[in-house]
Amino acid sequence: MAERVEIFDTTLRDGEQSPGASMNVHEKLQMASQLERLGVDIIEAGFPIASEQEFEGVRRVSEQVSWPRVAALARSVPKDIERAAQALEKAQRPVLHTFIATSDIHMEHKLGMSREQVLEAVAKAVSLAKSLVERVEFSAEDATRSDLDFLVQVATVAIENGADVVNLPDTVGYTTPGEIEEMFRHVIGNAPQADAVVFSSHNHNDLGLAVANALAAVRGGARQVECTVNGIGERAGNTSLEEVVMAMRTRGDMYSFETGIVTEEITNASQLLSNLTGLVIPYNKPVVGRNAFAHEAGIHQHGMIANKATYEIMTPESVGRGRSELVLGKHSGRHGLARRCEDMGFELSEQETAQLYAKFIELADRKKEVFEDDLRVLIATMRDETFETYRLVQLRTSGSDPAMALVKLTKGSEEYVETATGDGPVDSACRAIERITGITGKLREFSIRAATPGKEALGEAHVIVEFRGRATTGTGASTDIVEAAVQAYVNALNKYLALQSTRDEPAAGKPKSAESN
Ligand code: KIV
Ligand code: ZN
């Protein structure tokens, strides 16, 4: 029987450290539900010492999640470890993940600590963590640039003090497949009691080698792979979950390992993350990119017609794609809609079904064919509206130089109307919104993409807006792209207001003292 490799998903922690990927608590909860459906073994939910919001994210995910383990990150210092343990209190299967750097360059220049001091810190941190939480993971940050024999000593001390998992990260994305395999073999072969713990691999993608390195680490003895949906993460990102899982599945002849991932949920996870963060999936991204299963060349199409295996190494259905044909029309009814959503893996409450149905009818009025991808976008934007303070109820634009916009917003039962001019329809609408709300926003990034094929496609807009120095993401969807963009702006504004009301204002992101990789 194939051996099991556990999937440790760090989308909500390392992934969330991607520029522009920050998620608020509500977004983390939505993503955590999808990760649970996806079948990940561990969800790393955040870094509790970094901010109140991070703490709250871990606390709420711990309360919500039932099957996967929930992990929280902490540096190897008591205040971080105690805070992480507190955030994990409600988790059914908590994991406290503590780390310290072990490479000479990090120890000398970042920590100002000797090897002996680091070993002492590892012992203290792991034993404190173990006294507070039943399962402890220890990470030797920058392991791939650490002295191999020192790494053996570090792993030995971590194991002696109660670590259940030892992670050897490629923090800076520097290693190569041959080298990382050797590193795992060396540490596992030389640390006494290594067989009592799980070894884990966490790789960054600076040289585009993260997935290859993760697979090589598994060959070297790692039985846990840390990864993120869509490969998001610090700098060039982390090992991409969908790629590493599908590589093991498709090439079972080379990697006879299995994971617990329900691969048919990969597309839902990938798209939900993209909707929540606004990080657009590159068209050519393996497994989840729009073109990943598109065959353009005539010769390929010919082969595909004769036999799909000529050019297809995995099926779109196996990753939850390919069912995006026409799904529903205007007359499908609420029942049909609810059933389809259930098949797609979404559990909707009665209230959500009613709300979605109204949106669906509105969309079906504008475009005849409603695809699964349209439904995904509608669900994601609808769930985002839980934050809603302002609602866009009317938008009219005209001209271009200057453009003029009329915007009507509601806030509870109040109604506000303003007009403004600007450099284009979106700019003028944003100016009108500023007049209504009194809050100035700077549109830092703006992208629009079609969620489905056809000229009446639902346009999905993603924006990053800076409100009073704080970058906030927003999404919107409409068959009219200007309306989608303005909805996205209002969505970002509502998120900003929701964050303000929690009075958690680390305006420049995480405090410097709590930085991690
Ligand atoms: O990249 C890294 O080393 C990390 C650790 C905190 C696990 O993210
Ligand atoms: Zn990392």
Number of domains: 3
User: Structural class per helix/strand content?
Assistant: alpha/beta
Query: Going by CATH, what is the homologous superfamily of the largest domain?
Result: Aldolase class I
**What is the 3D shape?**
globular
Unreliable stretches (pLDDT < 50, length at least 5) are 503-517
**CATH fold category name of the largest domain:** TIM Barrel
List the strand order in the largest sheet. 2-3-4-5-6-7-8-9
Sketch the major β-sheet. 8 strands, parallel, barrel
Specify Rg, calculated over alpha carbons: 24 Å
Q: What share of residues are in beta strands?
A: 15-25%
End-to-end gap:
36 Å
Which CATH class of the largest domain is shown? Alpha Beta
Ligand set: 3-methyl-2-oxobutanoic acid, zinc ion
Number of helices: 16
Beta-strand segment tally:
18
Q: Give the helix proportion (percent range).
A: 25-40%
Query: Taking all residues together, what is the mean pLDDT?
Result: 89
CATH architecture of the largest domain: Alpha-Beta Barrel
From the structure above, extract its key features.
517 residues; alpha/beta; TIM Barrel; Double Stranded RNA Binding Domain; 3 domains; 8-stranded parallel barrel; 3-stranded antiparallel sheet; globular; binds 3-methyl-2-oxobutanoic acid; binds zinc ion
Describe the structure in your own words.
It contains 16 helices and 18 strands. By secondary structure, it is α/β, with parallel strands linked by helices. The chain has three domains: 275 residues, TIM Barrel; 77 residues, no CATH class; 127 residues, Double Stranded RNA Binding Domain, CATH 3.30.160. The structure holds 3-methyl-2-oxobutanoic acid and zinc ion.
